[in-house]
Amino acid sequence: MPGPEYVALDLETTGLDAERDRVIEAGAVAFRSDEVLGTFERFADPGRSVPDAVLKLTGIDPAELRGAASPYDTLAELVRFCAKRQLVGHGAELDVAFLRSAGLWDEAAELVDTLHLARILLPHSPSHSLPALATELGLDQPRAHRALDDADATRQLLLRLRREASLLPEVLKESMLALVAPYDWADARFFAEALTQPTPIVPTAAAPARAVRESARTAPTGAEPRDLAELLGLEGPIAKALPDYELRESQVQMLTAVAQILQRGGVLAVEAGTGTGKSLAYLIPLLARALVEDERAVVSTYTHTLQEQLLQKDLPALREWLPWEFKAVVLKGRPNYISLRRWRRYLAATCDAVGELRFKLKVLVWLHTTETGDRSELRLQGGEEVLWAHIASDPLDCVGVHCTSEDCFVHRARAEAESADLVIVNHALLVADAATAGGILPSFANLVVDEAHHLEDAATQGLRREVDGPGLLALLERLAPEQGTGLIEAIRKQPRLGAPDRALDDAAPLARRAHEQCSALLAAAGDWLRDVTDPARRDEVVRLVPAVRESAAWAHLLPAAENASTSLAALDSELRSAVAASREWLGGDDPDQDLRELEIIRGRLAEAAALLLEALLQPSSQQVYWLTILARTASVVLRAAPLNVGGLLREHVYGERSAVVFTSASLAVAGSFDYFQSRVGLPGEIETLVLSSPFDYLSQALMCLPQGLPEPQEPGFDDMLAAVLGDVAAGIGGRTLALFTSNRQLRDTYYALKQRHDLDDVLILGQGIDGHRRQLLTTFTDSDRALLLGTASFWEGIDVPGDRLSCVVMARLPFPVPTEPVFAARSEQVRDPFRGYALPLAALRLKQGFGRLIRRASDRGAVVILDPRISTREYGRAFLDVLPVVTVYNGPVEGVASAVAEWVGAATAPTARA
What we know:
seven-stranded parallel sheet, 39 helices, Rossmann fold, 5 domains, about 15% strand, Nucleotidyltransferase, domain 5, alpha/beta
């Protein structure tokens, strides 16, 4: 019997905005199994110039477009070609968006996206882009980024994916077939057909011979600083392994300092400029000490990105270079690991959308091979982050000693850490371990905190608590809704449980009473927030300071708060009794799932009740409390965070270690570590070291401080910002990163730049408009002519070496928002809040932003700071003092674009076509 009839399609366009950009080429291939039934290839005249970046990418000659059919007519002809066939595309959301914008998309139609299928069936592929998969799988794609060739590569990929599905182990295929059976989505039909295809016979190739490393563990003969420094020398093992090795004196200095502090004990803070190579400078002495003295070490990072770099790049390299055997593992927080018990429950639940079905298929395939259960292996995309919450290990859903699963990935990861020489964690887990007095990490003697400038923020975030109004009410409604059967009644109807149903006699009325009282409190809080805030602004925040609590309006909230707190306490008591009477049904391989859910909800309600009582009725002077009303949903959120985290860190993180090293590219302000020490609770006497970057900033970097700009709060600044940014990007052909401190200002600038015709050949990308951070960074890095507008997360952690990034524009000095509750509360503790807190924080942020520009010794570029206060205000010197010595342009604003273009060598940049 012939299989279904498919049609793979692809569009080439002038840009990524379906409302503003135009289609220039359409291609499609109709096929059934291995038989091609027909092809479709048409140009379209966009009626305007095509960006040079698009012409270069596709290889299309503009002359081929002139006189072709209009984009609408081309798309209409494509739709007729595709009629009555199953649509297939790769990353086809953009194609669908253009068809929808033209009014030619049938909303009832379904498209099988090979990008989603590849993420399920080829989880280990380095990239799931179509060109990368074509290269990896040997697909025929003569002209990448041409519509017909991309469509045909998509056809080949679908057939290859069908073959990959048929090759899966039988037990896995059975599980996948059972999962897709109830659904009639196109993806479900694809898997139902592919998984039942006869399994092709694949010849078994002999495994290639592998070099076997000697199993006997060797260790360094000592950990003397001088001996370890020689490992980085020109006669050392690293230099012998790398033909182009260059000795970096700053790296040797840092390694020596770290080795010395490990030897004698104490605290060391190192600011190591970009290019120092600080990872190797602390890893080598840490490992030597661990092996020689049997002292386990921990490295803590702020980002998972640095974690993965250490584990996948730096440590494997050291295994090759060093004559030692060592064990290093990464340990993450519980939510990063899958809970197999929660997964089995979730797998059995009905899928509400095709995206959920894809996620479950992806997890099924992954679980067949994973040894860690670590979510990072899944490379979650978009909405999958939300779905992961259904299956992530959760302390409230953990049966602890009753867990009989041999594959508890959390227990396995912690056991691996217990036997490791080096454990890599992130700041959040380090703080969580401190909060539980060492209940998470194995014992360790030495600690390195990398990305240390984030430690205070990470500790604050990790210890923050919140009550989300709608979430609280949803939990209560799950227990006992006004209509229908809730969880409490479902448990009471299970006669086998005996005691629990009697213990729950009063639970349902108590849950409904708590719902009523909490609803009243949230409504009153919402009314109060609307009265004291500006309803036109987004997500208004009110910090609960004494003056607020002493107002007459606040007093009206207190009875509602007391009623809600009392009702939640009564419900908690009733639920505790039921759970206590049901312990035998909570453990083992087959616990009662309703009771497990009841215990999870009880735990979360208890946490919410504790915060409501504390924040509204019994506030602590050591906590910061604030209420937020979300503009989009008008819902109320209560949050709390510790006023100071230094004491906790000092007592449970630093105080128990033999040696602690803090390092970052931005720790010192004007050569002093006083600010950093005060924020993280370090004692006054510590050892410090400032290592400048090995780069020659004077010849590599130009800093533009233009004259004649209005101040950021003055009329005309936003227009001037857009004008200067646009001129710079036009002058050097994109290659620019613009950093903002305001989402509103970013959006306004983005849309203003979109109206400039001299930027038609520049790909303009806006954070929160064109995608999330990772997508935007990948697109920017892959493009010759791009302008990227980003906010907070783009001020650091961006590494784009070479001329793809030749200019960084800072819209304004990155001062913190003065009304942000935690910042405002901490400012009140400082004698001079501006100079002692806000200014150093902003200066370090500026240093991070500046560090995005020069990433290699061969880089050359410009930084433009459009906030005139850096030149006109006395405090501007504090910002300049944290930056390296660079060449400076200090002229009129009208000359900035020319100065930047001349500095970066615009003559070597791609030139726009007429």
